[in-house]
Design a protein that fits this description.
Distance between the termini: 19 Å
Strand content: 15-25%
Shape: globular
Number of strands: 7
Order of helices and strands: HHHHHEEEEHEHEHEH
Largest sheet: 7 strands, mixed
Length: 264
């Protein structure tokens, strides 16, 4: 477990209730050890039952329970927001130009936010939606069923961008320009984007290719490549949508941390 990641997560983890004096039971596993198991599953894509307890220091069931508890406590979005603040303070965040896109993943189990995928022979799947800055840093992510249109997450993702501090003045929470592909070309959503003071740079449906918007929009595709390097996100195994979304947010936080490391 990298020290810089643990130092940022530790203050966000809720304190456990004190142990009983009489019949205290087994001593709980250290939080850092459990986090190492969660990151191991996220990176390697193994099942929770296959977590090597001898190497990690605890069982996969314990890691899953901590993931559940910390997801319900809202640890991952606060971690992501804290790292975005650090990036802005270091002048590594460029929110003038942002891009938005979606990506399909197959789902092997039932659960919320699962639907027949139109690009995978109607097999059950989910969609990852992400909005990124000019460098590909993920600002917000969402999870929907595989049959949901990308444009349905345009406004929710814009509203999900946290108020990012780090510099003097008002916190930054919206871009100046938003780049998107033809799937987002609807008059209704263009008006909604304009109403938020954002210039929509959306490719028009029916227009020939070569609009030039891809010179900025390609960073969203690269961010999906970064996210899917975490093998647990390539295929959705979690039945609970909030747990899969929590892993997705943790992956975004790790990407932000990598950008901080590369700058210093």
């Amino acid at each position: 477990m990298p020290n810089d990641l643990w130092e940022r997560i530790a203050p966000l983890i809720p304190a456990r209730p004190p142990r009983r004096h009489r019949f205290p039971g087994r001593k709980p596993v250290d939080d850092r050890t459990a986090l190492a198991g969660i990151v191991y599953v996220l990176r390697k894509g193994v099942s929770w039952a296959d977590v090597p307890a001898e190497r990690i220091g605890c069982s996969g069931v314990t890691c899953w329970r901590r993931l559940r508890d910390w997801t319900e406590a809202g640890v991952w979005p606060r971690l992501h927001e804290a790292l975005l603040v650090e990036l802005r303070h270091a002048s590594l965040l460029d929110m003038n130009d942002c891009a938005i896109d979606g990506s399909h993943v197959r789902a092997l189990k039932k659960g919320a936010h699962i639907g027949p995928s139109p690009v995978d022979r109607s097999r059950p799947g989910s969609k990852h939606h992400v909005i990124v800055d000019r460098h590909g840093t993920p600002l917000a992510v969402s999870l929907t069923g595989g049959n949901r249109h990308d444009v349905t997450q345009l406004i929710p993702l814009l509203d999900a961008i946290p108020r990012i501090r780090g510099l003097r003045g008002r916190p930054r929470h919206k871009p100046k320009r938003l780049y998107a592909d033809r799937g987002y070309d609807f008059r209704k959503y263009r008006r909604l984007v304009w109403a938020r003071g954002i210039v929509p740079k959306i490719a028009q449906r029916g227009a020939p290719h070569g609009s030039g918007l891809g010179k900025i929009r390609w960073v969203a595709e690269r961010t999906f490549a970064w996210l899917h390097q975490f093998k647990r996100l390539r295929i959705r195994y979690e039945i609970r949508a909030d747990l899969h979304h929590g892993l997705l947010q943790l992956a975004c936080a790790i990407i932000c941390l990598r950008r901080l490391r590369s700058a210093f």
